[in-house]
Amino acid sequence: MELIYLDNAATSLNKPQCVIDAVVDAMKKFGNSGRSACSQSLNASRVIYEAREKIASLFGLDKASNVVFTSGATESLNIAINGLLNKGDHVITTDLEHNSVLRPLYALTKIGVEVSYVHADSSGNVNYDDFSKLIKPNTKAIITTHASNLTGNVLDISRIGALAYEHNLIYIVDASQTAGAFPINMSEMNIDVLVFTGHKSLLGPQGTGGLCVKEGIDIKPFKRGGSGVQSYLEDHPSEMPTKLEAGTLNGHGIAGLLAAITYINEVGISTIQNKEKALVTRFLDGISSIDGIKVYGDFGKEHAPIVALNWRDMDSTSLADELMEDFGIATRPGAHCAPRMHKALGTVDQGVVRFSFGYGNTFEEVDKAVNALKEICR
Amino acid sequence: MREKKPCFVVTYYTTAEAMATERLCKEKGIGGKLISAPRNITADCGIAWSSSPDNKELIIASLSEAKIEVQGFHDLVL
Question: Which chain A residue lies closest to B45 (C-alpha atoms)?
Answer without folding.
Answer: A229
